[in-house]
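Rotation project, supervised by the postdoc (A.L.). Task for the rotation student: set up a whole-complex structure prediction and record inputs and outputs verbatim in this book. Inputs entered:
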Amino acid sequence: MGRRLPQIFFGLSLLALVLIVAAVWQASTPSWKTYQRQFLQLEAQGEPNAVTKAAVLATPPQIHQVMLTGLQRVDRCTTCHLGVDDPTMKNAPEPFRYHEGLGSHIPSRFGCTICHGGQGLATDKKNAHGDVQFWETPLLTKEYIRASCGRCHKEGDVPGVPELTEGRHLFETQGCRGCHKLNGVGGSIGPDLTEEGANHRSPEWLERHFLAPNAVSAGSVMPNFHFTKDQARSLTYYMLSLTNEEMGTYYSSERLIPSIEYGRQLFVEKDCIVCHAVGGVGAKVGPDLLGVTKRHSREWLDEQLVNPELVYPGSAMPVYDLETNARKALIAFMSSATPEDAQAIMAHKGTGLAPEDAAIEAGKRNFARFGCAGCHGTELQGGLPNPNAQGGQVPSLVHLADDYTKDEVIAVIRDGRTPPLEDAKGPTPPLYMPSWKSLLSNEDIHQIVEFLWSKQQKKQDSW
Amino acid sequence: MNLIRDIYQSIVRRDPLSTDKGKSELVFLNVWLHIHPAKVKKESLKFKHTFYLGFITFFLFVILVTTGIALMFYYRPYPPHAYQDMKDLQFVVFMGPFLRGMHRWAAHGMVVCVFLHMCRVFYTGSYKKPRQFNWVVGVFLLLLTLGLSFTGYLLPWDQLAFWAITVGTNIGSYAPLVGGKLREILLGGHTVGEAALLRFYVLHVAILPSFMILLTVVHFWRVRKDGGLSRPVWKLKPNKPEQLVTIGAPPQTAPLNAVAASTDKTYGLMEVVTGKPIFETITPDEEEDAVFSYPYAFFREAIALMVTVTGIMAISLFFRAPLEELANPAKTPNPAKAPWYFLGLQELVSHSALLGGVVAPTLMVLALLAIPYFDRNPSRRPSDRKWAIWLFTIFVVANLVLIVIGTFFRGPGWALVPPWVHVVAGAE
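Outputs recorded:
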C-alpha cells in the first residue's frame, strides 16, 4: 500500500485537473454563444464582400445588457435576441427577429421584461423565459401580453387595450374592494391584490378563477360573480398589470396617457360645459372652445389650466388640480371637440342635484368604490351563499329600515360584525362584515346610509 | 549550472530525501510541515482508525476560505444588490455557478465532517487525559462551524436565506431575559433587514473565520503536544496505559530511555524544559512501528486533500447551489424552516419554545464540553466504557432523528407530513 501512495496521489491530481478542465469547458460554452455565432452568420450573409464578411464573423462573443435604472432592472435578453431593433431582421428566424410595432417603446429605453415578463438577468433560455422554479414572472403569452401596458399606464384609458379600462371599471363597481386590498384600500377577507401581477399565477388560472373561483381554488371563500368570459378576461388583464414596482420619472410620467377619450371623460367630470360652449353649444360664461387650440399655443392653454389668474388677471375660471397628462388630454380633446360632442355631453347631463340627492349620489359611489356591492349586491339584494351564517347567505339590505335605526347601521359599518351562527357548533362562516372605521370617514358612512335608506322598499302589506 | 544549484540550495537546505536525515530535515526545516513530527506511528495513520475526518474538515475549510475570497469580489452585502449579485454569479460571472457551488457544498460538508470527526474522537476515546482540553477546543470549533454556516446562509438574500435566518434567530430569542436583546444585537434591529445582512457579512468573512483560524492552530498544536495522533484502540497494550507526559508538569513516571545528562552531548532547549529526549513518545519497542512522516504521512494527507477537493468539484459540476426568489418579508413560506442542522432545534421548539430552544441546546453544549472531565474512566477500550458509548450514541441518534423529522416530515403549519405525500400549498 505504502508504495502505491504516490501513484494514487498522482491519479487523483490528474482527476482534479480533468474536473477543472470540465468546469472551464462548462463555463465557456454557454448557449448564448451559439446563438451569437448563428446571428453573426446571418449578418454575414448580407455583407457584399469577403473582407466585411470576415470582420462580422470575427466579432467576439459578449453579453449584451440594457441597464434600466428607472425600472430597476437589467435585461440581458438582447444577448440572444440580437435583431430586436434591426429592421433588416424582419424575416429572420427567432430568436433574431426584428420586433415590429414598438413605436416609442424602444428596447434600449424599456428593455423587454417590463412587458414580456421573464427573467432579464438570465442568459440561458430556460431561466430567461422564467419557466423555472423560484421565478415568479414567466413570459406572458401573446394572448395576455397587452395586460403589461397597465404596468406603466396605470390610469385612464390605454389605447388599444380596452380590457384594462373595462377591468378597472369592473373592479371599482363590482365591490372587489369589499374583500381585497389594493394599494392599501379595501377589506382583508381575500388576499391583497397590490402585487397580484408579480405573483407567478398563470393568466389562465386567473381567468378560470374569475369564471368559477371554486373550480381552481378548492374551498375558496370568493363567491361566483357569474362574470362573462369577456369580463373575466378584462379582470385578468387588470390583475396581471398590478405590480408595485418603483419607476423612474421617465416611466411614471406616462401613468396616464393623454388620449382624446380620456380628455372627453375629464371634460364631462369637471363639468366644463357649465361655463364653456363648443361652437355655440353650451354656456356662454367662458369663451367658446371651438378652435381654441388654433387661437392659442398648447403651452398657453396648459398654463391657463394650471393657473388661470396668471394668464388672465381676474379670470373667473376656477383652479382645477390636474396633473400634466390630464391637462394634455383635455387640450387634445379640445382640439378635436365639435358642437356634436357638446350636444352629446349636454344630453347626458342631468339637471343639478339637490344637496340631499348629492349625498345619496356620493353614498352610491362609496357603496360601489369600497366594495359593499361585492357581498350585498349592486341592487342591495344580498343573497351570496355564506355557509352557517343565519339564513345561509349574505343578508339583503332592501328592508334594512324595518329592523334597524340609522345609528345602528352606522355602528355596524364602523365596527364590523360577525354574522350570527345558524348552528352554534358549526364552522365560522367565511364571509363577515369588516370594520371600516380606518378607511371611511364619518361623512362617507353617513352618505352610504343615506343611499341605503333611499333604496328601502316598502314592506308588503300583509292585508 | 552552479548558479541554478546555488539558488536551489538557498531555498531547499535539506539533504536529499533518499536519506533519513533528509526526511527529518524536510519536516524540521519547513515552516509549513514542522507541526508534524519527523516520525509517526504507523498504526496512527490507519484509515479505519480516524477516517481522516479531521484532515478532511480542515481541507474543506481551506476550500471555503479560497472560494469565499473569490466570491467576495462579486458580492455587495446590501439588500437590493446582494440578490442581484447572486444572479450575476449564476448567469454572467465566468465559472460563477461552479464557484458558488463549491462554497455551498463544502460548507454543508464541513458541518457534517466536524460532527463525524467529533463522533470518531468520542468512540475511540481520544479525548481522554491528557487531551481533555483539545476536546473542548474542538467543541468550540464545532460551534464556530455552525456559526459560519448560519451567517453565510443569509448572504444570498433569497427567500430561503431570509426565512431560515428569521426562524433561526427567533429560536435564540426564546432565552429568558437576554434572548430578545441578543437577537436585536445580532440583527441590528427587530427584523432581518439591511443591518442584519451587513452584520452577518462581517461575522461571516472577518470575525468568525479569524477565530476559526486561531482555534484551528491551537487544536493542531495541542494534538502534537498532547502526544501526537492518537493510536488505534486495537493497538493498545493490555494493562499498560500509554506513557504520555503532560507539558509543564514533571513526568509522573520516569521516561524510558532517560539517561543522566552527559558532558559529551549538547542538549536542546526542549529537552531541558521537558527533562526528556525529543522522541519521547517513541520507546525502543515501538521504534519498529514508527515510520518517517515523509512519505508515509504526507502522501496520505495529500490523498485526503485530493479526495476532498475532487469530491467537492465533482458535486459542484453537476449540482447547482439553490437560489430562490428575492427575499420578501411580506410573503412567509409555509413552513418556514431554519437551516437543516438547526431543524432538530426547531422541531424541539415546536413542542416547547423555552425547553427546546434554550434549555436543550445549552445543556447539549455544556454536556459536550464536560465530557472529558466527567468521564474519569482511563480506559479507551469500548468494552470498558459501555455506558459512555450508549449515552453518546443516544445523543447522536436523537439529534439525527430530530433533524430528519424536521427536514422531511414537516409540512405546512409544521404538521406531520411524510415526504411522499405531496401537499398543494397556497389554497385560499
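Student's summary: The first helix of chain B runs from residue 2 to 11.
Supervisor addendum: Residues 239-249, 256-260 of chain B have pLDDT under 50 and may be disordered.
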